[in-house]
# Entry
Amino acid sequence: MSIVTVRRIAQIFFFSLFAWFCVVTTVGDHWWQLRGWPVNWLLQLDPLVALGTLLTTRTVYAGLLWALTTVALTILLGRFFCGWVCPFGALHQFIGWLGRRRKKHAERVAMNQYRNGQTIKYYILITMLAAASGGLLAELLQWPREKPAVGLVVLVASLAVTLWFATRKVVDGWRKTAEWFVGLLFIGTALGFLVRPEALVASSLQTGLLDPIPLIHRSMNLVILAAFDGLATASRFYIAAWSITAVFFAALLLNLWIPRFYCRFVCPLGALFGVLAHWTPLRIGKRQGECSGCELCENNCEGACDPFGKIHPHECLLCMNCLRACRQAQMTYGPRRSAVGEIPSPGLTRRGFLTAAVSGLAAVPAVRLAGLLNQNWNPGVVRPPGALAEEDFLQRCIKCGQCMRACPTNVIQPATLKAGWEGLWTPILNFRVGTSGCQLNCIACGQVCPTAAIRSLSLDEKLGRGGFTERGPIRMGTAFVDRGRCLPWAMDEPCIVCQENCPVSPKAIYVREEFQVVRDGARTITAAAADSLTLDGAALRPGRLGTGDYFVGLENAAAGERRLIADNSGQDVKLAGPWTAAPAAGSRIFIEVRLQKPYIDPARCTGCGVCEHECPVNGLRAIRVSAENESRNKRHSLTTRA
Amino acid sequence: MSKPGRLNPLDRRDFIMRAAKAGAAIVAAGGVGLWLHDRKGPSANVVGGTVTLPDFSLPSTGPKMSIVTGADRVKTVNRALAALGGIERFIKSGDRVVLKVNAAFASPPALSATSHPDLVAEVARLCLRAGAASVIVTDNPINDPQSCFTLTGIARAAESAGAKITLPTPSSFKPTTLADAALIKNWPLLFEPFHGATKLIGLAPVKDHHRSGASLTMKNWYGLLGGRRNVFHQDIHTIIFELARLVRPTLVILDGTTTMLTNGPTGGSLDDLKATNTMIASTDGVAADAFGATLLGKTAASLPFIGKAATAGLGTADFESLNLLRDHVD
# Structure
């Protein structure tokens, strides 16, 4: 079996595995649901997820340690992940193959030429990693103020060394590097004394926008599988699916222009692997400088790494197509470097590197000038139960959509710009979409989150039971009654669907009963019997008062002197029970409706949104959850009680 | 071959062919346009074919009710059905039975917000033993349907007993209209499970319900409604009454083994529950509800939907007037 066949089998295997893991990420007790399947495995193998969260949080969360395997293998073998494992890469390769099937040899070779633009992906990687490093940088810059004595010594010493260097002409070699290092040390120490860096720079994890593994998970979970979910159960909806679809299919269609376009020009994970593969002891290369020059090796070259000429080892995806294509067995994968020579670097310039790094670092504070993490926080951003405080959340969420796929009620949605630019495609709750609110006895989202942006809660912690009684349940927000839209409050209509559906015990929604005189309800009796009355005024709609909610109340009577109406015709009202003393003709009565008006107890409300989902005011709901009082941020608390 | 800069000479055959094809294209386009031409535009309300639920009650049995006390649901329901003459009086060989359970909420059976799985399984088993060809367990829950049937334990219990679960999907609903009704007019009804059904049994727990006063066997039919049915809470007694008119079951079983006294209909805490150890089987849902009210410490007179149903002759609120069959099992 040729090595290319083995590679194809590996690609099909890993793609199927990926698709299967997406399919089974649903809550239920069937074997094809979340029953211990390692559904995050590919995300955990992705070292960009691990590195990104490492930079933002200085920890490697749980299964993300798997990334070490990929890193070690890449250092040894090269970019095997791109060519053999990556499900997005497999998809690109397949579509690229479809697109060039009928093309001539020369055209195909032209498509697979190395282009200078392939450097762009490294700049994308640098920008994203820099954006994730702001907090780390701030922490590093803080030390001079914490240890001012040491700081002062370092400051003076580094200044002296820098000045000493400055008096000499240093052009290159280790001394130039040393000069840069000492100079930066001086600037850093000085900055540490002068400014509060934590107010200047911050971390935001945005690798998930373009990292292919979260990207394909998101696309599979929220677009492809969502399209088929309607076949099995009820249809699922995702509010930002249009933008996810656009990115996904644009990336796929670009393969028709240039094969593996995304991998070659955009993919930040590929760039990271390119850097890791720098010293790889095993590599693709030519045995001899001279060959027949047929360029068959570049006919299907996936990485556009130029195996015919001086190879770009950072670009090689180990597709092994050149090995099989060469009729003279010129191409090898082994310890020797190519006989023609190699291009030793990915082609980054120092200027480009600095521009990308500074852009990334500066982008985060620039975006945060909107104040969404401070006074201007958006109460419409209701995060899933267990989500970290917003700033910490944005340091971990990779926008993979696993929580949204796992959510049994479809209430977790990918945000468009509700949570700001940083929060694009992050999970927020939308209580109008889906089959219910956040289900009381469900903790699936936190269990499945690969980076703990949503903490893995126990049911006891979510519900505030057991050891968590003191702290109370996890609150995502609070429901507020819109009294201008609520039927009992605004329109004299009995309802309290919200109270009925409130799932906590005792209910967070409670009612106060009120007897409200209906419009045109003040009447004069023209005739009275023991259990019926004839009224003056406009004719009543027959039967309207017989619903069990309407009463006749006497003017100037003691409280409780009212009778339930059993039925009515145009002027006559039939009572469900007789009066103790029947009112005389000519006396005034009131037609009243018994209303139960809903109120919220913020200490009990968890913000699950079942009330908002069920509210019969179907458009803009009359009871709505917003993030006030959410557990994850103390500054958003509402009352001193809760 | 034409010379550059000059028109081709007219080819008669070619011209006639082109003219004929062009003519055919115009005729085809015109034909399709005229065929699909709609002079009036759409009417305000497009009403599809409506369905009606058949009457599942057995005229031969007449109104009958049994009340059996005891803590074990399997024993009490067996005794209660035996008192009515056995399940065989209601379910014949080949019957296709629908069990309308209460699976409204995604909460565990211990919280008694839904039909108990033991009871569902036992009734399904009894029906199959009596020769039923199939037993379908269904409801249109309030919370996510899949989660409701899973977490309540109903799905697993029913399937282990040999019954089938029908979860509602958008295509399960068909509009229905109840004659002379104020509310149920062209309203989506969970109809899919009723295709070919010959018997209907309602299984309801006894629960507090803030809006209507009580959730019992008649309120249980709410779960057959689709659409934005919550609007009917504005007129809760009328909708329950109309549901009692719409749905005429073979039998109802009211499970008062545990009664949800407070915080209904969701419950959520064991503190909301009280052991009342009573199982009711009845062919008269009104009587069953009138008795069920007493388990909640209420009277039938305080629940207007019972009065409405009784006045309309759907059953009797004076359950004592039925020759009550009382018993007890340990």
Q: What stands out?
A: The helical segments of chain B are 12-35, 73-83, 117-129, 145-151, 154-161, 236-246, 285-295, 304-311. Residues 188 and 227 of chain B are 6 Å apart (CA to CA).
